[in-house]
Amino acid sequence: MHRATNKNSYAPAASTVPAAIDVSGFSLADRCVLCVGGLTGARNHYRHAIEERQGRFIHHDGGREDSLHRLQPMLNGADMVVCASGNISHNAYHLVKQLCKKMGKPCVMVKGTGIASFIDGLGSLSGKLTSSQRGETVLKSGRHA
Prior knowledge:
This protein is α/β, with parallel strands linked by helices. The protein has a single domain (27-139), classed as Response regulator (Rossmann fold), CATH 3.40.50.2300. 29% of the residues lie in helices and 16% in strands. It has 4 helices and 5 strands. It has helices at 43-51, 71-77, 90-103, 115-126, and strands at 32-37, 56-60, 80-84, 107-110, 137-139. A 5-stranded mixed beta sheet has the order 2-1-3-4-5, sandwiched between helices. Strand 3, helix 3 and strand 4 (107-110) form a beta-alpha-beta unit. Helix 1 packs parallel to helix 4 and helix 2 (71-77) packs parallel to helix 3 (90-103). The radius of gyration is 18 Å and the shape is globular.
């Protein structure tokens, strides 16, 4: 005799993002976020994370193919910066830090290239997290006394 089984007996988790970093409740309020570096394959995930929080996405690859001369004009148009510091050139890293400080742009240097680190960095910039949960360096304001 064959027993009938319930095909719906397995229910996947509601969210693939761990609750500890789920900061989906914040809004970027139409602010433009410049993402510098990161994995090429994750670029669409970065875009989605920003756009689902009502932000605007622009990207610079951190000097791999995009010219560093394009970085300053892109920073001029951005309201905040998320930089995947482990996946960009040394020149791009120092240029981003220098220009963000000079322009007073909020910036977060994310150590990882994964989407969880990226969302954590966005949360840090939005002010919804008081500090980064993954050890990123957050430059809240570029101008220091």
